[in-house]
Amino acid sequence: MSEREDDVEPFVGGMEMDSDANEDPKREKQLDDAFGAWYEMIDDQVKRKLELTNVPEGSGFDAAAGLDEEPS
User: Measured between alpha carbons, how far is residue 20 from residues 37, 51, 58, 68 in Å?
Assistant: First the structure.
């Protein structure tokens, strides 16, 4: 056995304890990119929700009063 295998037991109770035991730089980049895309999508959803729920301070009826008029 190598010195690393003697010193470190990567699996304890069926769970990997050393996250760098099977490090793959390409996989790490893929995971980072996927997380970045997911986070950006969540951010876009939050922005869209805020735009949909952005209501005027006053009465909605007062704010909509001029919407039916055609612009000149």
Answer: 24, 42, 57, 63
Single-letter amino acid code for the residue at 41: M
Question: Tokens 């069926």, residue?
Answer: 14
15's enclosing H/E stretch is strand 15-16
Structure tokens at 69: 């008029």
Record the tokens describing residue 9, joined without a space.
């037991």
Instruction: Please indicate whether residue 55 or residue 43 has the higher confidence score (pLDDT).
Output: 43
Residue with tokens 């996927």: 34
pTM of the model: 0.44
